[in-house]
What we know:
There is one protein chain. By secondary structure, the chain is an alpha+beta fold. The chain contains one helix and twelve strands; from the N terminus they run αββββββββββββ. It has one helix spanning about 1-35, and strands spanning about 65-70, 75-80, 80-85, 90-95, 100-105, 115-125, 125-135, 140, 155-165, 165-175, 185-195, 200-205.
Amino acid sequence: MKLIKILVGIILLLSFGYLLKFILEMEKIEHQGTFESSIPVDSNQSIDKNISQFIDTTSTESTIGSVTHIGDYKAEFHESKLKVYNLDNLILEQNISTKGFQYLLSSDLNTDELPEFWLFFKENKAVKVLGFQLEKAKLIPLNFPDVKGRQRIGYIGNDSLYLEKGLLVRDFKFSGDANSDFPEGFRKCFYAFGLDKSFVLKKTIDYEKR
């Protein structure tokens, strides 16, 4: 009789241990499931294309061309026509007769959520920058300033236009400027574009090499 009681006690003890282990395992699994459910299944978050943005690059003609994108908009320059698309639907086109097209840039430098388009032309030594802002399905011309005054001293051409850290940059080769630290080199002019569609020359920096 005593032996039977001992066996029953052992069986009950083992059963209790097994039950306790089972409960702990279930709680562990439930906890893991709760933690994992808080992690997004798809880590590739979608980007709202309507948020204003600008290309930030120091690239020049070698990597940019006749098509540019910003948000839902695309612009392309082909056969003397600037065409602007919204979600691949053509919304306007404009004839531009300026010769020597090199490349096209897009931006929203003044963060008003209205895209700007910059066309860079270069024929022989003549350089021309045409800027436009899209407003209500119309292209509003922007008067990008010419290089003049102190910045133009020693100017000999070989211009480039690009965007860098929210500024529009025009750089060019110079030589023989007595006020520069270098007898010759490249000068970078950094322009800010404001909500009033004005340009402000923020800084000018000379480099020995581009």
